[in-house]
Amino acid sequence: MYPEVLPGIEPLAEYGWSPQVAERFADSDVQGTPGRIVRAGRGSSEAVTSAGPLTVRAAGHHLCTGDWVIVREPATDGDTIGTVCAVLPRTGAIRRADASGRSEEQVLAANVDTVVVTVAADTVDLGRVERLLVLAWDSGAQPVVALTKVDLTTEPVFERVVALAPGASVVEVCALDGSGLSELRDRIHGTVVFVGVSGAGKSTLVNALCGRDIQATAPVRQGDGKGRHTTTDREMFPLGDGMTLIDTPGLRGVGMWDAGAGIAAAFPDIDDLAQHCRFTDCAHESEPGCAVRSAVEHGDLDARRVESHRKLQRENQWVTARADARLRHERTREAKVLSRAIRAYYRDR
Ligand SMILES: Nc1nc2c(ncn2[C@@H]2O[C@H](COP(=O)(O)OP(=O)(O)OP(=O)(O)O)[C@@H](O)[C@H]2O)c(=O)[nH]1
Ligand SMILES: [Mg+2]
Ligand SMILES: [Zn+2]
């Protein structure tokens, strides 16, 4: 139904259209124009479709930046807003627990291939880097750590970050002289999302990679070095060769959301050791024959990292249990409403 290559698809070629994506569209039986969400908003969102840019609304779908969608063009000439009829199943969605504290997930970006965990070298928080790496691994995309602002510190942070990022490359970059940029460019592919706290230098990297100032940046605050939450939308920009970059607002909190697989992928060192613990359900606390504690005692593993792993696991279990409880609660409520309706039906007969 959708041509594999370009005629009619030109605008989308810049936004990651590929034969694989074409196949995913072909699998859908919903009729309409293929498109991708380049900026998701509360009311309306911006899309690029095979016919060009289009503002769209979605009835009943929660859109997020990076989504592949099937769009119905505006019906009448005066109307400028398209309707999203379907959202293709997401691959590589990066999500966290909703910051509002409700037991809900929030998808930060969809159909992502690379997650650039952006960390300022002068304000590294090791636990936060691990947390972001869990989120990144859990998305199914390839994580890369960009250690920015290396001109602002003489501490050996690179080694520390490498030690907590097994399986991910760590690239040192400096926006002042552009060093490390081509290395970073070599390690990213497909749809690339930048995540990190405000002020980490995400937008600066997006601008540097694109070679022009498309995103506003702002100096961090004097005194506490915190960012000013300059970027407010999750927005996608074409980089050329079909690659796209998604800049995101600084993350205030990174709550675990059903991230068991992400935790295992981010901590393969601890997982490997745990295979050698005497008890299969070892919590690495006071059990005899614990290989994890033994590695810490021998100086082969950082105690901080074990504690960080435990904290993330506990949080993840807690969030999952709470979400389950909410689901159960909703089911009970539905059942009550139903039984009340049945009672009323018989009473009123
Ligand atoms: N010295 C130095 N400053 C940098 C570097 N990279 C970024 N900065 C500065 O750090 C500040 C914050 O950068 P941004 O790119 O706005 O940070 P951000 O992560 O997009 O922040 P939010 O949009 O608020 O989430 C800006 O003043 C940048 O110029 C670097 O490598 N070296
Ligand atoms: Mg920004
Ligand atoms: Zn153990």
Automatic annotation (TrEMBL):
Swiss-Prot/TrEMBL cofactor(s): Zn(2+)
Sorted alphabetically, which keywords does the UniProt record give? Cytoplasm, GTP-binding, Hydrolase, Metal-binding, Nucleotide-binding, Ribosome biogenesis, RNA-binding, rRNA-binding, Zinc
Residues given in the record as Zn(2+) binding sites: 277, 282, 284, 290
UniProt-listed InterPro entries: G_CP_dom (IPR030378), P-loop_NTPase (IPR027417), Ribosome_biogen_GTPase_RsgA (IPR004881), RsgA_GTPase_dom (IPR010914)
- Kindly state what the record says about how the cofactor is bound: Binds 1 zinc ion per subunit.
Enzyme class comes to hydrolase
Q: What is its main location?
A: cytoplasm
Provide the E.C. number(s) assigned to this enzyme.
3.6.1.-
> Which parts of the sequence bind GTP?
148-151, 196-204
Extract the Gene3D superfamilies matched here: P-loop containing nucleotide triphosphate hydrolases (3.40.50.300), Probable gtpase engc, domain 3 (1.10.40.50)
The job of this chain, per UniProt, is described as:
One of several proteins that assist in the late maturation steps of the functional core of the 30S ribosomal subunit. Helps release RbfA from mature subunits. May play a role in the assembly of ribosomal proteins into the subunit. Circularly permuted GTPase that catalyzes slow GTP hydrolysis, GTPase activity is stimulated by the 30S ribosomal subunit.
Query: How does it associate, per the subunit comment?
Result: Monomer. Associates with 30S ribosomal subunit, binds 16S rRNA.
| Name listed for the protein in its UniProt record | Small ribosomal subunit biogenesis GTPase RsgA
Organism this protein belongs to: Rhodococcus chondri
